[in-house]
Amino acid sequence: MKVLLISANTEQINMPVLPLGMAFIAAATQNAGHEIIMVNLMMQNDISEIIEQTIKQFSPDIIGISVRNIDDQSMENSRFLLDSVKKVISICRSLSNALIVLGGAGYSIFPESVLKYTGADLGIQGEGESSFVMLLEQIDKHADFSGVPGLYLLKSSAQKKVKFTRNLDKFALPLPNIHLLSFSNIKNDDTWIPFQTRRGCPMNCSYCSTATIEGRIIRKYSPQQVVKGIKNYVEAGFKHFFFVDNTFNLPSSYAEELCDQIIIKGLNITWRCILYPWKASNKLIEKMAKAGCKEVSFGFESGSEKILKMMNKKFKPEDVSLISKMLKKHDIKRMGFLLLGGPYETKETAEQSLYFADFLDLEAMKITVGLRIYPYTSLSKIAISENLIKSEEELLFPKFYIVNELKDWLQKTVGNWIDKRPNWIKS
Question: Which long-range contacts (CB under 8 A, 24 or more apart) does 160-167 make?
Fold first, then answer.
């Protein structure tokens, strides 16, 4: 079958992002014998023109659209991003009778709601490599496809349970300049290649949607498969990588083995990752530095032990401080994150967090006031119990939790702190 894959994301909240999720689907679809064309709408001047040209030249049988972001997760002047996806679907509808299938991280959080809002035909929640290929096979045979795992149908409430593959090595890693395309106006030297070595997160943080998207069990590519995949990009001229795993250092034994393989193979790459501030030994951090790690996203979220417990974090402020010192010792830059205003936050705990962040003396700090409420989280249950929302069904349109009496004070206080610290930003 002829399959057109479109990455609808045009949001550059931190930096332009290459569509890794769509690239995995592209690799699986191509390996299953289907003909593919990919369109990345990021940095396109005229999305209508590029979609029209592609559809007229390719005449796809199926159109898959990746939905990465629902909104910008900012409480202040929040931007809802699904209307741009709706526009993409409308353009496709006007040019083709092909079935339109949605997927992606954003879609997986709100599968039924996004499908209804955008008017696409189908959607696949969760891991798409197996399910999307299975869907194509059933459609090609004119067979019933309602049993595909994770599938939602626009005109039916029926949905099959999501299945997560335990052995990720069965999924091909995207290839450079084939499945994961760099922006035409950015040189390889400037491109940070997103790379995933693990999926799933068991940490169960009170506000986090990762488990809904990827499941609660950590599933890993073998380090040998990862290094082989990275080598393909190095040979294509790419040098910078962003490991998008939710927690790079968990499990630590796997992270160490991965670093060892990068060092042994002499890949000579530069990379950044997301570090959970718990169970990160000096041995691991030293290996990370030797393997080319230059920067970590350091999401400690609060400097108050009380609030960390409410967020269901496994670490304490002293763990954060110790790991921060080890990172600095090995010349790894730290981008810290605070989430302020959540359940049981007080002026005292918020100030404790700000002073703690200041004490860490990080290279960069990002502060978020108000927590985006996602379904199937502890935070959503608290919001319902406090009558902030009636049910999880209304969370497609961004709702935020903030202790009401702190709202104005937090905005003003955080603003004053940031004004005096040029390396701090407010999201």
Answer: 162/125, 162/126, 162/127, 162/215, 163/126, 163/127, 163/130, 163/131, 164/126, 164/127, 164/199, 164/200, 164/214, 164/215, 164/217, 164/219, 165/127, 165/129, 165/130, 165/219, 166/217, 166/219, 167/219
Tell me the two tokens of residue 400.
């935020």
Q: Which of 271, 281, 342 is nearest to 306 (CA)?
A: 342
Q: How many CB atoms lie within 10 A of CB 31?
A: 12
Mean pLDDT of 51-61: 97
User: Six-digit token pair at 142?
Assistant: 């004119």
How far is Cα of residue 130 from the mean position of the Cα atoms in its chain?
Answer: 20
In 3-state terms, what secondary structure has residue 305? Answer: helix
Q: Are 341 and 370 contacting, i.e. CB atoms less than 8 angstroms apart?
A: yes
For the chain, what is the mean pLDDT? 94
pTM for the predicted model, two decimal places: 0.94
Residue type, 427: S
Which residues, including other chains, have CB under 8 Å from residue 236's CB and lie 6 or more apart? Answer: 176, 177, 188
Of the pLDDT bands very low, low, confident and very high (cuts 50, 70, 90), residue 13 is low
Name the residue with higher pLDDT: 139 or 427.
Answer: 139
pLDDT tens column, 346-367: 999 999 999 999 999 999 999 9
